[in-house]
């Protein structure tokens, strides 16, 4: 494993730490690092993810490339509605199949 491999693993681990930081900030759930024997190292690792995530958020806020989501964007609302519609359609078709088998 050369320098590129170490760099790649470091980048991947940083992304995972940032995802864990985003989960903590958006939901309040934290990784239960106390359960492991290397708790102090995991605490430092999660701190690194918090720092990277806050740096990224600060960059995004002051960048001209991003804006607040507008109601007409409908990123999350549209996809959840589509999922609900597909789920309803799937339930109807499976209940019809069950009814036709029982008759």
Write up this protein.
With 103 residues, the protein is mainly α. The chain folds into two domains: 65 residues; 29 residues. Helix content is 75%, strand content 0%. The longest helix has 28 residues. The chain is extended, with a radius of gyration of 22 Å. It comes from Zygosaccharomyces rouxii. This is DUF1748-domain-containing protein.
What labels would you give this structure?
extended, 2 domains
Fold topology:
Layout: H1 3-27, H2 39-62, H3 75-102
SSE run: HHH
The beta-strand count equals 0
What is the strand content? under 5%
Shape: extended
Please, how many domains? 2
Distance between the termini: 64 Å
Instruction: Give start-end ranges of low-pLDDT stretches.
Output: none
Count of runs of 4 or more consecutive helical residues: 3
Helix content: over 70%
- Structural class designation: mainly alpha
Residue-averaged pLDDT: 82
- Output the radius of gyration: 22 Å
Largest sheet: none
Biased composition (Basic and acidic residues): 81-93
Biased composition (Basic residues): 94-103
Keywords: Membrane, Transmembrane, Transmembrane helix
InterPro entries: Mitofissin
Task: State the gist of this model.
The chain has 103 residues and is mainly alpha-helical.
